[in-house]
Amino acid sequence: MCKLLRVGSASTVWKMLLMFLFSGVTFGATGLGAMLLMILLSSTHLGKDASAKHGISVSESSRLGGVAIAIVVIIYIAGLSAISPYTPGLMRNDDFLYLWGAVFFCCSLGFAEDIKPDFLTPTLRLMAKFAVFGALFWLAPTFIPKSLGISVIDFLLSVPFLGWALVTVFAVGFINALNMADGANGLVPGIALASFAVFFAEYGRPMDGALLFACSIFFFFNVISGWYFLGDTGSYGLGAVLLGYGLLGVVDGHFSAGFMAALFCYPCTDFLVSITRRWRAGRSPFSADNGHLHNRLHQFIKVRVKSGVMANSLTGLVVSGSTSGVVLCAYLADVLPSDSELWYLLFAVQVLLYLTTLRYLTSIQPKTQYADPA
Amino acid sequence: MRIILLFIIAMGLIWVGVLESGASSVNDFKHHASGKTLDKQSSIRRFLSVGFVGDLVVKKIISDGRRTIILKGNENFLAPGEVSTDHVDN
Questions:
Q1: Does residue B41 lie in a domain region?
Q2: Residue A80: which pLDDT band, with cuts at 50, 70 and 90?
Q3: Contacts with A21 from chain B: Cβ below 8 Å
Q4: Burial of A202: CB neighbours in 10 Å, binned 0-12, 13-18, 19+
Q5: A-B Cβ pairs (cutoff 8 Å, strict)
Q6: Beta bridge partners of A228
Q7: Contacts of B6 by beta carbon, 8 Å cutoff, 6+ apart
Q8: Residues in chain A whose beta carbon is closer than 8 A to a beta carbon of chain B?
Q9: Is residue B42, in this structure, part of any structural domain at all?
Q10: In the predicted model, is pLDDT for residue A31 greater than 90?
């Protein structure tokens, strides 16, 4: 029992107590069950990552976080739909059917990679994602926004084939951006948590509630222990859901494109800055490096905080909290209507903050051969 | 063997919340139809099953489900004493 639950040192016992306390207070018996399930999955040998192989981790961790989230969500939604005929199901219309099909495919793609790393070549994975999202937007063109508030882009989106191609490229880029940002405890889970909280507050769909619940438990686990990563299953799957919800939110007019830009500012900005940095250094835009803002910030925090896990989690919390967390708070406090174009201003401030912080941290830290242009 | 037992416990605990959410949804419809309000005991049970954040989530799911089903026209809530026209013999 102790070995299974990793109970060994006093710090491990404290971490477990904290995790069960947070999950129990916020989500009761169900939260305790989900936390226990996640601990059990994290202790299996399947999908184990060596220390420092993934992002800025300092301990051996499991990459099955996405699988754990999927299991909890499926149990909750399947059970709720079976018990209560008054709960609207997943397939509200054909668009949702196609969306969940795309999400399932993305999860499967990530799962194959989590179980057997490099099972598929990066090119094959990229082509598969293009095929999935190309098919999704072809079958369900309602996902393609008509107006983003920027006249040039609006004109391009109004041309049928061009609009489809642009949104497909954006979708694949978004999924990769989220996967690339998954490098610190609580970073992508924090962004996903804030986003599902916004979607659930706006729509109240059972699936959003189940995702909010599963992401909250995973967030507590990830931030407190650092034993778990989302893995490719999680980053691809959650990325596909967030992309679909975000596009539908903009299309139906509940959210402005500026709101979505501010909500997903970190992964999108970091992705664009990273591929530009690699291109300038003469490397492949998709080659891994340690020049992301969260890597730089982690270096900064690490020398000031004793615990490696705490430095990692603080990095994730600072990044997700100062981007998506701020948007969630502003949305809940009703600072601006969610369909206002003024959210672009917040997005601009976030980008400026990102660039200023990155520039400052780069200037005070030594150059690395992988991160900086020669 | 122990891992299976712990796995069963985990599943059981998750199902506590699933059952509570489902039962609350069904009760909500029955109570609205009969004009009753939810009793305090069921609120405490729900709090223990799904916690204080979960309680807010379940309430929102129930209210959204009710609204969606009414909009689709699959279900009508009746005021106390009101008779549905579907069941009135002509």
A1: yes
A2: confident
A3: none
A4: middle
A5: 143
A6: A62
A7: A1, A4, A5, A36, A40
A8: 1, 4-5, 24-34, 36-37, 40, 72, 75-76, 79-80, 82-88, 92, 200-201, 203-206, 209, 212-213, 216
A9: yes
A10: yes
Residue B78 pLDDT:
42
Task: Answer yes or no: do A205 and B28 touch at CB < 8 A.
Answer: no
What gap in Å lies between CA A63 and CA A51, rounded to an integer? 12
Q: How many domains does chain B have?
A: 1
Which chain A residue's Cα is nearest to B59?
Answer: A204
What is the residue range of B8's domain?
Answer: 2-79
Single out the residue of A194, A144, A180, A147 nearest to residue A320, CA to CA.
Answer: A194
CB contact under 8 A, A4 and B48: no
Q: Is the pLDDT of residue A55 over 60?
A: no
Contact A40 B7 (CB under 8 A): yes
**Residues paired with residue A48 on neighbouring β-strands, in sequence order:** A62
Residue of A nearest to B27 (CA): A84
Mutate one of B3, B13, B32 to test the A interface: name it (highest A CB count within 10 A): B13
Q: Show Cβ contacts of residue B55 under 8 Å, excluding neighbours closer than 6 positions.
A: B43, B46, B47
Is residue B87 domain-resident?
Answer: no
Q: Which residue has the tokens 């400052």?
A: A360
By the 8 A CB rule, do A69 and A215 touch? yes
* Residue A146 CA, distance from chain mean position: 25
pTM of the model: 0.88
Determine whether the interchain pair A30/B13 forms a contact, defined as Cβ–Cβ distance below 8 Å: yes
Pick the most confident of A59-63, A181-185, B12-16. B12-16
**A33–B23: do the CB atoms touch at under 8 Å?**
no
Q: Is the ipTM of this complex over 0.85?
A: no
Q: Which residues contact A18 (CB under 8 A, 6 or more apart)?
A: A224
Encode A158-183: b = buried (16+ Cβ within 10 Å), e = exposed.
eeeeebbebbbebbbbbbbbbbbbbb
Residue with tokens 């109004």: A158
**Is the Cβ–Cβ distance between A259 and A338 less than 8 Å?**
yes
Q: What is the pLDDT of residue A86?
A: 67
Residue B62, in any domain of the structure = yes
pLDDT tens digits, chain B, 90 residues: what are they? 788 899 999 999 999 989 988 888 888 777 665 555 555 556 788 888 889 899 999 888 888 777 766 666 554 444 444 444 444 443
Distance from the B72 Cα atom to the nearest Cα atom in chain A, whole angstroms? 10
User: pLDDT tier at A324 (50, 70, 90 boundaries)?
Assistant: very high
Give the residue from A211, A258, A217, A219 showing the smallest Cα distance to A239. Answer: A211
Chain centroid to CA A325: 13
Of A34, A40, A83, the CB nearest to B19: A83
